[in-house]
Amino acid sequence: MTNPSLLILPGDGIGQEVMAEVRKVIDWIGAKRDVTFDVSEDLVGGAAYDEHGVPLADETMAKAQEVDAVLLGAVGGPQYDDLDFSVKPERGLLRLRKEMDLFANLRPAQCFDALADFSSLKKDIVSGLDIMIVRELTSGVYFGEPRGISEVDGQRVGVNTQRYTEAEIERGARAAFELAMKRDKRLCSMEKANVMESGILWRDVVTEVSKDYPEVELSHMYADNGAMQLVRAPKQFDVIYTDNLFGDILSDCAAMLTGSLGMLPSASLGAPMENGRPKAMYEPVHGSAPDIAGEGKANPCACILSFAMALRYSFDMGAEADRLEAAVEKVLADGVRTGDLLNEAGVKPATTSEMGNAVIAA
Ligand code: NAI
Ligand code: MG
């Protein structure tokens, strides 16, 4: 097998700072393990605009289509707020997602014991939590036609349409079942088949796909009950598969069970490539944080944990992913904290690079 290839796009603001810490992790794995990553680095967002006048150059897009995984920091910043919509930094990100056709958005909610106090829930409810929400990302009510605001019988009417084809439900379901196979082999599909035809079709198609994954235990739940269960007893879940709208809400809800924005990774996966690996982009959930950019205050863990997801889901290096996550867990347990993970005054926060170094040491 050829070396795993990775395109790094640090982007803007703290994206560059947190990515520098991920580079240390990549170098460590390269030095200590029998694997060589083919790493290339390029510009996205405002950084690309400054250089090329567009938020993503065509050559960068082409490279992203070739590599096994893209790792992105963050894009945007106030200096770009007045740019024309067509060249705004966010458009670079949207172009990557669209042209790579990344239809499955993976949002883990994992509770590090040392941060359980940051949760809005009781410690024993979240302690040890490790779930994954797979959200369908390219269809559903955010894209369905007809849509718009029009005037009917003298009043304004707003319309959006929930529309899913079998093929759209199926490809996301396959991605979710594949993940379940790499995890605890349990999948809960969430829709509202009680009141929505698209939900009835969703349930049917997921059930059909499940026949190809007999080892995975499949359950179905109405999404409103799913919201209740997520805050009542989240540990009952392993992988959750749901549509674009429900997934948007449920994944934000689940993420906050576990603490700070500075800790949250994500992945977006597309169709399998010729080598069997899915098209993939990994990125922290947070943005470019202009309020702290350039000050060495950013928490690099969300980006480091995004790389751990790349190890697990793109490179079949699950043991290394576990090791990296365990290192983050140890660092937190040892009390190393960037400012976003501190609520006591008078404690000196760790810098971005101190946090990265501590992960390497662990
Ligand atoms: P943000 O996520 O950049 O920041 C929100 C708050 O969380 C800020 O107070 C920030 O300091 C803090 N924060 C975020 N990440 C942190 C980290 N790793 N360590 C410590 N503190 C952290 O969201 P905001 O402020 O709404 O947006 C700022 C810029 O980022 C905007 O230009 C926005 O468009 C862009 N953005 C980009 C995203 C992306 O690239 N995927 C996602 C969200 C926003
Ligand atoms: Mg959201």
UniProtKB/TrEMBL annotation:
Keywords: Amino-acid biosynthesis, Branched-chain amino acid biosynthesis, Cytoplasm, Leucine biosynthesis, Magnesium, Manganese, Metal-binding, NAD, Oxidoreductase. Binds 1 Mg(2+) or Mn(2+) ion per subunit. The keyword Glycoprotein does not apply. It comes from the Bacteria. GO terms for molecular function: 3-isopropylmalate dehydrogenase activity; magnesium ion binding; NAD binding. It catalyses: (2R,3S)-3-isopropylmalate + NAD(+) = 4-methyl-2-oxopentanoate + CO2 + NADH. NAD(+) binds at residues 77-90, 287-299. GO terms for biological process: L-leucine biosynthetic process. InterPro entries: IsoCit/isopropylmalate_DH_CS, IsoPropMal-DH-like_dom, Isopropylmalate_DH. The keyword Ribonucleoprotein does not apply. Its EC number is 1.1.1.85. Substrate binds at R97, R107, R135, D224. The record marks Y142, K192 as: Important for catalysis. Pathway: Amino-acid biosynthesis; L-leucine biosynthesis; L-leucine from 3-methyl-2-oxobutanoate: step 3/4. Its cofactor is Mn(2+); Mg(2+). One of its GO terms (cellular component) is cytosol. Belongs to the isocitrate and isopropylmalate dehydrogenases family. LeuB type 1 subfamily. Homodimer. This is 3-isopropylmalate dehydrogenase. It comes from Aliiroseovarius halocynthiae.
